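Need residues for this backbone.
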């Protein structure tokens, strides 16, 4: 590419060293500060190259006929943020210095004059190095390694996020690791692990979540007594974790998706708004009594917000070397509160009424990836103690349907979702409670209906635990997902239709006349079908 700017100061610094017959060490020593002084120019070059590469990738991956409009300012900001991250890596500048030094030395070895090292030639060398770094990063951000929607967010492609969703539902993040994080909060599976002072939970895919205060991010080398005090505080919070914390996490995700225009935004929320999402209503005033929410309700909400802010999670792993020989883990905080509004108390603190929050940078990318499902608000409204079964099952069914799952569930699996094993003394009570929960969900229109596989409920505890229950999604959800997947790319439509039809990959592959391994690659977007195979797939989809 020919967009590399000139770097006269860097070229002049190199020539001065070479004119004095300086060696490699002197050349390295002079180039580093000269390049550091040109950081803004290098970052600008990185940002331009990133935008061009990702723009080309989007043009190649975008479905034919998809309308788009670009928010140029947002595209510039996002690409600049990526460029800042690249240039901020501790190895970026030292490697650039070595790259320039080696190439300058090679020129001189070939017999070039010192005067040939000018601002333009140095700019060209810097451009080659920048391109190599951009190629690595943009490759990780190009479909099928990330959803197309993630690429659209980076480039500022305006997508209509205000789509109509069925009444009584909200958008939630669908990633399995996020589902396991909610599960860890509900069931309080944060435990002590060797080598870590913080409460730690294992997540789907081998990642972890920890309760670790944000203050520790800036002070990682605290004295032992300071670390112990923070750790003790986190263990006290661990003892408080409950379904309410999962509710608040879902509520924050939903509010952010509804209000934010992009992953770099911060949004405002009210404590009362979160309480309303949980189905709580303020008491009316009158007769000398003050109206509003009860102090206990507000304090519980503030405690849950504090718990969420202290979460530190593994979001994903990226492959640095091909073949999985070297991987790096991406970690992030789900959400951080940056500003607070409320009445000031005598102790100098405030009773928070409104706050500004935003996701961690890495978590924001996944939050805006487009991998969302509809969560019934009833899941938040059910009482976390008296309606725990209904709450957890509502959250699980919502996620399962959004992930393209079928409607068959093992009884043992549903008990695991609820976190309640069979009562060894009164097993029929456990059975009755599960059936009551499913009946309540049906009455509340969270599920369309449920039934045991077979003609009758299995007799005996062992037979019942091995039984299958069919749980049907409400028509509103089925219609929503059918329309959503109709506008999706081919891999998503193919995967959804196969699962909805109850087919295995092997069965569908046989009907299409291809290998199961090839179908797996088609469903994940790793390969594109040939024209004749695509026609056969479209015919099969049209017949559904």
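Answer:
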């Amino acid at each position: 590419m020919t967009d590399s700017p000139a770097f006269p100061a860097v070229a002049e610094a190199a020539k001065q060293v070479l004119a004095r017959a300086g060696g490699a060490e002197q050349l390295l020593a002079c180039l580093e500060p000269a390049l550091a002084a040109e950081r803004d120019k290098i970052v600008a070059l990185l940002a331009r190259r990133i935008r061009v590469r990702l723009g080309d990738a989007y043009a190649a991956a975008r479905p034919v006929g998809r309308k788009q409009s670009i928010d140029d300012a947002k595209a510039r900001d996002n690409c600049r943020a990526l460029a800042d991250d690249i240039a901020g890596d501790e190895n970026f500048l030292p490697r650039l210095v070595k790259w320039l030094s080696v190439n300058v030395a090679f020129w001189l070895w070939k017999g070039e004059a010192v005067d040939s090292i000018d601002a333009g030639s140095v700019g060209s060398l810097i451009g080659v190095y920048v391109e190599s770094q951009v190629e690595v990063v943009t490759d990780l951000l190009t479909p099928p390694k990330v959803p197309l929607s993630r690429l659209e967010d980076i480039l500022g492609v305006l997508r209509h996020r205000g789509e109509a969703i069925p009444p009584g539902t909200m958008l939630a993040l669908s990633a399995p690791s996020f589902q396991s994080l909610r599960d860890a909060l509900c069931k309080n599976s944060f435990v002590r692990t060797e080598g870590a002072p913080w409460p730690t939970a294992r997540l789907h895919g081998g990642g972890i979540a920890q309760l670790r205060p944000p203050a520790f991010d800036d002070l990682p080398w605290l004295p032992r007594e300071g670390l112990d005090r923070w750790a003790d505080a986190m263990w006290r919070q661990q003892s408080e974790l409950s379904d309410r914390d999962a509710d608040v996490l879902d509520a924050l995700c939903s509010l952010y998706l509804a209000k934010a225009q992009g992953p770099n935004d911060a949004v405002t929320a009210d404590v009362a708004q979160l309480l309303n999402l949980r189905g709580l209503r303020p008491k009316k005033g009158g007769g000398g009594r003050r109206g509003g929410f009860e102090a206990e309700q507000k304090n519980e909400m503030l405690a849950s917000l504090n718990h969420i802010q202290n979460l530190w999670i593994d979001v994903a792993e990226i492959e640095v070397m091909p073949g999985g020989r070297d991987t790096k883990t991406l970690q992030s905080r789900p959400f951080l509160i940056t500003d607070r509004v409320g009445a000031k108390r005598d102790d100098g603190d405030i009773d928070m009424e409104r706050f500004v929050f935003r996701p961690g940078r890495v978590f924001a990318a996944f939050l805006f990836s487009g991998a969302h499902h509809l969560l019934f608000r009833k899941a938040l409204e059910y009482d976390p103690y008296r309606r725990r079964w209904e709450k957890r099952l509502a959250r699980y069914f919502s996620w399962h349907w959004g992930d393209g799952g079928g409607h068959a569930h093992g009884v043992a699996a549903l008990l695991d979702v609820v976190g309640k094993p069979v009562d060894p003394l009164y097993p029929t009570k456990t059975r009755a409670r599960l059936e009551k929960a499913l009946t309540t969900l049906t009455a509340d229109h969270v599920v369309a209906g449920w039934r045991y596989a077979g003609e009758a409920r299995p007799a005996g505890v062992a037979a019942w635990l091995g039984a299958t229950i069919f749980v049907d999604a409400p028509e509103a959800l089925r219609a929503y997902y059918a329309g959503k997947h109709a506008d999706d790319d081919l891999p998503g439509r193919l995967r959804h239709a196969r699962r909805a039809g109850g087919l295995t990959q092997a069965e569908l592959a046989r009907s299409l006349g291809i290998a199961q391994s090839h179908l797996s690659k088609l469903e994940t977007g790793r390969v594109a079908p040939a024209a004749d195979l695509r026609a056969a797939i479209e015919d099969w989809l049209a017949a559904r």
